[in-house]
Design goal:
The protein is an alpha+beta fold and 95 residues long. The chain has one domain (7-90): Winged helix-like DNA-binding domain superfamily/Winged helix DNA-binding domain (Arc Repressor Mutant, subunit A), CATH 1.10.10. Helix content is 57%, strand content 13%. It is built from four helices and three strands. Strand 2 and strand 3 (66-70) form a beta hairpin. Helix 1 crosses helix 2 and helix 1 crosses helix 4. The protein is globular, with a radius of gyration of 14 Å.
Length: 95
């Protein structure tokens, strides 16, 4: 049976991509987030709006496109999520 990702796991995946793929320091494009996040454009657009609104991502607006960078708050989220995921797995639970 296929295992579906939870909303929190999807958020962690998007934040991780924004952190890991930002090699030049000028943000990550939507296309990269779509490919790594494995979701539709409509769903990704809604999620990006929520993440920017909550302060987990920073939106860098250019002339034609927007790029995204993880914020300090987003990094804190990933650290807390990772700790909780390890805690849950120590009890044999899967998030």
């Amino acid at each position: 049976m296929a295992q579906y990702r939870t909303q929190v796991r999807i958020i962690a995946d998007v934040l991780s991509t924004a952190r890991d793929q930002n090699t030049e320091g000028n943000g990550v494009g939507v296309t990269t987030l779509l490919r790594r996040g494995n979701m539709s454009y409509g769903r990704m657009s809604k999620l990006l709006s929520e993440l920017v609104g909550s302060g987990l991502l920073l939106e860098l607006s250019g002339e034609k496109i927007s790029k995204y960078m993880i914020s300090q708050k987003g990094i804190q989220f990933l650290v807390a999520y990772s700790s909780f995921e390890e805690f849950a797995q120590s009890f044999g639970l899967r998030l």
